[in-house]
Design brief:
heterodimer, A: 108 residues, alpha/beta, Rossmann fold, 4 helices, globular, B: 503 residues, Beta-Lactamase, Heat Shock Protein 90, 5-stranded mixed beta sheet, 11 helices, 11 strands, disordered C terminus
């Protein structure tokens, strides 16, 4: 199951708990890695910082990405991982309650 | 100057030419009359000579002829021929010349025949006739001589008078006129106080002439002009001051506009940031409240009794309502700052789309709505869609509890204004509270009666105001309500709009 990781990028512990509960209720048993902010998520994806030395040939099956994050926000994370060949094709789901049109448009 | 005045024809020359022509005509007429009188006098002299011949010579010649005294007859005839102007005399007897003196001539002559009578034994008998031919050439020659003398003296006199007149007219009039013309041409606002003097002999105050009038008039005109120029200069100074004041005011105004615009932009940006933060941050705790309430119901539901379930449902409903309020508030804010693109809109078609949407999402599907066909207007399609959504949603909502609900979307023209309306026969409202109707979060019904946040009509009002229109309502409890609105861009009824402007 090592290669079936889901990366959850979420700074709010409440949302994290609710997301994890929803996933387990949906019988999704993949390993879930949680990043608390954008920088940590990028560290994980590119094997830098606290995730130094991680084998970056293994990438998550899915990234659940919150938009409003400390340090580096979700849209910036999205931009950077789309710009890198290792992560450009990863499926990303944006988690947001924003009704702002510009957020939706920018995400595409 | 002469060039643009055209051919220059000096007054002096014209005066002299006219005078000479006139005096020549008069002189010729007078001469002709005088010559005629002389001619008559000369002719009179000739006639009297002829009369004299009749008296003095006839008896002598008659006796000489009777006596056939040729010698005496010839002497008498020779004496007769020596009289002035007598050209030829002849004594005729039965058309035969018996004796004659002088030379015959056929032109310019005056001829008179006298009968020669002789009284013999108391009986008068005609023995012949005397023919006297007077020569008129002398008369004509004297007339011609006189004509030439008169002509030459008149010509010389006229020439001298003309020359004198020319000089005198120049000295008296034209030199001054030229000076006045040069002075007037030289006048400009800078030398208005210069005075014109004419080189004329001094004359008394009671002997003023036309030039004094002209000088006086010119002086007055100069002082009037000077006053006018002064007024104009003052006006110009005032105008320049006013202009510079306006310039300053404009600059200040532009500065203020720029400042205000910058402030507005800053406020707008703050508002945007605020809205974004509201939409994200206020919603996050709500999500936790709703999410964990749901988790509690699902995971620990069996440990709660019905009261506990009721409490949890109330918590969830409250959280969801809060979410709805936030959504509506954001929508109201967005309506205020969204860019407007005004185009021609078919409100009837828009209403059809909105109705379909309401049916799909809210279940308002009963065909109780009547939409007038061809409701055209000008406005922003997205914003007007929100208006129709709110008004039709309200109409449906407030008429949902009565049997036979009827909703109508239409248009009428009043005082050259196009007014759109949405009419329903639902719950209506008390006109006492009509001014609360369009305030944000203001409601006339409790949530249990009709659900709502009280933002819909506030949104409608903002949109209509942004279109430069008005919105108002009429209602009666239990009898329904009518909501009216206008769009400034379509205030002129269709039929009055010229073809080109309607395109």
């Amino acid at each position: 199951m090592h290669d079936k990781v889901i990366l959850l990028v979420e700074d709010n512990p409440d949302d994290e708990t609710l997301t994890l509960r929803a996933l387990s209720k949906s019988k999704i048993l993949n390993k879930i890695v949680v990043a608390r902010d954008g920088a940590e998520a990028l560290d994980y994806l590119f094997g830098t910082g606290i995730h130094d030395g991680r084998d970056t040939s293994f990438q998550p099956q899915l990234i659940l990405l919150d938009l409003k994050l400390p340090k580096i926000d979700g849209l910036e994370v999205l931009k950077r991982l789309r710009a890198d060949v290792r992560t450009a094709l990863l499926p990303v789901t944006i988690l947001t309650t924003s009704n702002e049109e510009r957020d939706v448009i920018t995400s595409y | 100057m002469r060039k643009w005045l055209g051919k220059f024809s000096p007054l002096g020359w014209r005066l002299v030419a006219t005078t000479v022509a006139f005096s020549t005509i008069v002189a010729l007429l007078a001469t002709a009359f005088q010559l005629y009188l002389d001619y008559r006098r000369d002719l009179g002299t000739i006639e009297s000579t002829l009369d004299q011949v009749g008296h003095s010579y006839l008896p002598t010649i008659g006796n000489a002829l009777w006596a056939t005294n040729r010698k005496e007859l010839q002497v008498a005839l020779d004496g007769l021929a020596r009289l002035p102007d007598v050209r030829h005399v002849a004594v005729m007897e039965n058309d035969e010349v018996w004796a004659q003196a002088g030379q015959a001539k056929s032109q310019n002559i005056r001829t008179r025949d006298y009968p020669l009578n002789h009284v013999h034994r108391g009986e008068t008998m005609t023995i012949g006739s005397l023919k006297v031919v007077m020569d008129l050439a002398g008369v004509y020659q004297r007339l011609l001589d006189k004509f030439w003398v008169i002509l030459i003296t008149n010509g010389v006199k006229t020439f001298l008078v003309a020359g004198f007149m020319l000089w005198f007219f120049h000295w008296l009039v034209t030199r001054h006129l030229q000076r006045i013309a040069e002075f007037a041409a030289r006048l400009n606002p800078g030398n208005l106080h210069e005075r014109l003097t004419l080189d004329r002999p001094a004359h008394a105050q009671d002997q003023l002439d036309e030039f004094d009038l002209v000088l006086d008039g010119l002086t007055r005109m100069q002082s009037n002009l000077a006053a006018a120029v002064q007024t104009l200069e003052q006006d110009i100074v005032k105008l320049e001051q006013a202009e510079s004041e306006i310039q300053q005011l404009n600059t200040a105004l532009e500065q203020r506009v720029a400042d205000r615009t910058a402030q507005l932009e800053a406020v707008n940006q703050e508002l945007e940031a605020f809205s974004y933060s509201v939409s994200h941050d206020l919603r996050t705790p709500l999500r936790s409240i709703d999410g964990f309430s749901q988790a509690l119901v699902e995971d620990y539901g069996e440990k709660l009794d019905s009261v506990g379930h009721d409490y949890l449902n109330r918590v969830r409903r409250a959280a969801q309502r809060m979410g709805q309020l936030i959504d509506d508030l954001l929508r109201l804010a967005r309506v205020t700052r969204a860019d407007m693109s005004v185009t021609r809109i078919d409100l009837s078609a828009l209403a059809a789309v909105v109705t379909e949407d309401l049916c799909k999402h809210k279940g308002y599907c009963e065909s109780t709505l009547t939409v007038h066909a061809g409701l055209a207007g000008r406005g922003d399609p997205a914003l007007l869609r929100i208006v129709l959504e709110n008004l039709l949603d309200n109409a449906w909502k407030y008429s949902s509890k009565i049997p036979g609900p009827k909703i109508e979307l239409g248009r009428m023209v009043q005082d050259d204004r196009v007014i759109y309306f949405v009419r329903d026969n639902g719950a209506g409202f008390d006109m006492t509270y009509v001014n609360k109707l369009f305030g944000a979060f203001q409601r006339l019904h409790r949530d249990e009666e009709f659900a709502g946040t009280g933002v819909g009509l506030a949104t409608v009002k903002r949109i209509i105001h942004r279109h430069g229109g008005e919105v108002w309502a009429e209602g009666c409890p239990g009898k329904g309500a009518v909501f009216y609105f206008t769009l400034s861009h379509s205030d002129i009824p269709e039929k009055q709009v010229p073809r080109e402007a309607a395109r």
